# Entry
Amino acid sequence: MAAAVSMPVTPVTGQLLRFAGTPPSEQLVFGSHLHWLPPRPTRRSWCTSCLLAFSLARTAQRSQRLHQLPVRDEDRSRCSAEVMLDFERKGFLKMPQILAPEEVDLLSELVSATCSSEECMLEALRHQIRVQYGAASATACSDIDSCRAKLRDLERRGEISFLQYFNLHRHSGELRELALSPRFAFWASRLLGVPRVRLYQDALFEKRPGDGATDWHSDLGLAPFDTNSFVTLWLPLTSISMKGSSLVYAISSHKDFALPFLGDVDEDLSGRYKLQRTGGLLPGDATAHHGWTLHSAAGIAKTAPPRLAWTLGFVADGARLRRGELVLGEDAVSYEAWAKELGPGARVEHPMVPLLPTV
# Structure
């Protein structure tokens, strides 16, 4: 399910305090007097305090409302039978402005604050080392500096596709509210044609300047489920130009039953599928692709800005784990703990795979 990040968006510090969900026009600037109280409050200072309290309360209300991400009328109108049929046929869908500008601002702030923690950064680097060198090497890296040193030569050669920050919702209650919101529940359940879905994982994927291409893969090939009912939502947090590193989809590859039995996923698949790029994307846009849809992405030039995307993987409620021995692949960080607890063939009902609301 590939991807990740070292966030270029640094937490807000200094004189500027931006409260979650507040657009730039409503930012409040304070000096060192934020906690200063005059010895003799005047009528003017009392009014100023009231306005500040009112502004903070309004911001808190907006933040709470944004965390819920309700289903909008435009979501329902755009989720037509024709759109669902197009997704079923092609295996992917482009969804402009699934998030409003203020919702994207909030998401970016929460992701930045979460990923900037030492714990999340270390997990992302260790995951990349595990992919490149194995679990033992990842365990041996005890701090961020030693992990970066281990990856430096690969990064110079462009042999790393991106960094992946998995399951940020397990580190941030606010991000968890977004990930489990009614709007995402609505789109995921409609695209899969099921009553309810569960959140399998979320991740921040960062392609940094000089990072290489993302190889062709399908997300369900990396997940432990015995089902076809799986969908990934891919939301860019940075603008992607028409020629940028957006996803490239192999049209209808999710229905190519013969490939894993009569062919080789790693062979040259040129000419087997028609390909389609998603083209330019803005923060707030999203793409969705079926769990078996093959997709890839180009690398990024060393002079280009990083590409950041938050992804969400949803599986139908009622899905079961594959039978047989659990194979710990690239995305094992998302399922190793709870899948071992449930056991082979078990119905996926676990707090680490939370159920989204009925919409």
User: Anything to note?
Assistant: The chain has one domain: 70-342. The first helix runs from residue 43 to 68.
